[in-house]
Design goal:
The complex is a heterotrimer of chains A (about 190), B (about 110) and C (about 100).
Chain A: H1 8-21, H2 27-39, H3 42-54, H4 56-64, H5 66-72, E1 83-87, E2 92-97, H6 106-109, H7 119-124, H8 129-135, E3 145-150, E4 156-160, H9 172-176
Parallel strand pairs in A: 1-4, 2-3
Helix pairs in contact in A: 3-4, 4-5
Chain B: H1 35-49, H2 55-63, H3 67-72, H4 75-89, H5 95-105
Chain C: E1 14-17, E2 40-51, H1 53-56, E3 64-73, H2 74-77, E4 86-92, E5 96-98
Antiparallel strand pairs in C: 1-2, 1-5, 2-3, 3-4
The chains are: A alpha/beta (about 190), B mainly alpha (about 110), C mainly beta (about 100).
Chain lengths: ~190, ~110, ~100
């Protein structure tokens, strides 16, 4: 049947009704998934970043196996794709994109933001990463090379940004509050106020 | 030597580096998800957990949407279109019963 | 392509992505982006083994294939790229050959 031109809310309602009548998918099961997914947010990734900035052993575990490190934070990783963590360093900046669809480390960052799913971001990030960073006003230190990571297959990738100067002695919650969603994708870099 | 990407027979969802979008600005503003978005996302998750369809099938169904429509549809509208097409293809649902369910929703 | 065991590459191996367009031959689901096909890169590290999405997408039996993180100089992909910038892509072993 031709699906183009169907009104979306009507199609969703019809499909849900049909799947419920067949005892395949209930409204309660969908609601449970929505509630679970809504719990994931960039605050989880930010907490992991702050721990990595203050605890060298955790940082090593995070870089070696992001999935197990996330589980240390009580994040449910069973059934989620493996998490890889990309460490920014002096002279090296990471930027994550999915040019084919919108693969995103949802378990630790939540739903992907609108821009991450956009045609412009997907097309430009691998070819004009500096121009893309400029859209956020992000300018990297001179001599920094960019490693764009195109998330094409089974891993999901999160950036471990560099700890900002001027945050010596800060505790984990204060550091975590500095870290935004875009810092963990690589479009922005965290800054101390 | 890098040839112009118009010479490469790429699929329309395969967007990396495609020249026609290089001058398009990125809309960096925050967009909230709608109830529709969350419900399609949740439905997809349940279908995956139950082994009714895989995420790879979802992607194939999205990629099968004709280019003009792919670019016009919203993100979760593509998902819903794909989910419906895959469930029809796998005979999890039938076209006639979907037509009837659609008629009942008007 | 299916059937033959794909070669195993170690970190540092020079590889070439097969110049192939299965999507031109019929319904397909390909996770190797167009812009790296036929290009040479370097294996950063093996990422483990995963079921082939090209088969999962059609609910077919999916062989388990090695997956690699492969680094490309952006200059080798697009002439206007800044020197030193890179793109790293996850690529299944079935798409890679020794360069």
């Amino acid at each position: 049947m031709n699906l183009s031109g169907l009104e979306n809310d009507r199609l969703l309602a019809a499909l849900r009704g049909l799947l419920a009548a067949k005892n395949l998918v209930s409204a309660a099961e969908i609601a449970e998934r929505i509630a679970a997914t809504d719990q994931a947010s960039p605050a989880q990734g930010a907490a992991m970043v702050a721990r990595a900035w203050t605890d060298a052993a955790f940082r090593a575990r995070l870089l070696a196996d992001g999935t197990r490190a996330a589980e240390e934070f009580g994040i449910m990783m069973r059934g989620a794709p493996p998490l890889g963590v990309l460490e920014n360093a002096p002279g090296l900046h990471h930027l994550v994109v999915c040019t084919l669809c919108s693969c995103y480390p949802r378990a630790v960052l939540g739903y992907p933001p609108f821009w991450y799913k956009s045609v412009a971001y997907r097309a430009r990030a691998v070819r004009d990463p500096r121009g893309v960073l400029a859209e956020w006003g992000t300018v990297l230190p001179e001599g920094t090379r960019i490693r764009v990571v195109d998330s094409t297959a089974d891993y999901r990738w999160m950036v471990l940004p560099r700890r900002p100067d001027g945050t010596e002695g800060w505790d984990e919650p204060a550091l975590a509050a500095l870290v935004r969603e875009g810092d963990m994708v690589g479009v922005t870099i965290p800054r101390a106020p | 030597m890098a040839e112009d990407d118009t010479t490469r027979p790429r699929a329309h969802h395969d967007l990396g580096g495609v020249a026609q979008y290089l001058c398009e600005p990125v809309d960096t503003s925050a967009h909230s998800l709608t109830d529709f978005d969350r419900e399609v996302d949740g439905l997809r998750q349940v279908l995956g957990q139950k082994g009714i369809m895989t995420v790879d099938e979802l992607r194939r169904g999205i990629e099968a949407i004709p280019e003009a429509e792919y670019l016009r549809l919203g993100y979760y509208q593509r998902w819903l279109r794909s989910i419906t097409a895959i469930l029809l293809e796998k005979r999890v649902i039938g076209a006639a019963e979907l037509e009837a369910a659609l008629a009942a929703e008007t | 392509m299916s059937g033959a065991a794909p070669p195993l590459f170690a970190a540092g191996a020079r590889v070439r992505v097969r110049l192939d367009w299965p999507e031109q031959r019929g319904p397909a689901h390909i996770r190797t982006p167009h812009y790296v096909r036929g290009r040479e890169g370097t294996v950063l590290r093996p990422l483990g083994r995963f079921a082939n999405p090209e088969d999962l997408a059609f609910a077919r039996h999916a062989p388990i294939l090695p997956l690699y993180h492969v680094r490309f100089d952006q200059r080798a992909l697009w002439p206007e790229a800044a020197p030193g910038d890179e793109v790293v892509v996850e690529i299944f072993g079935s798409w890679l050959e020794t360069a």
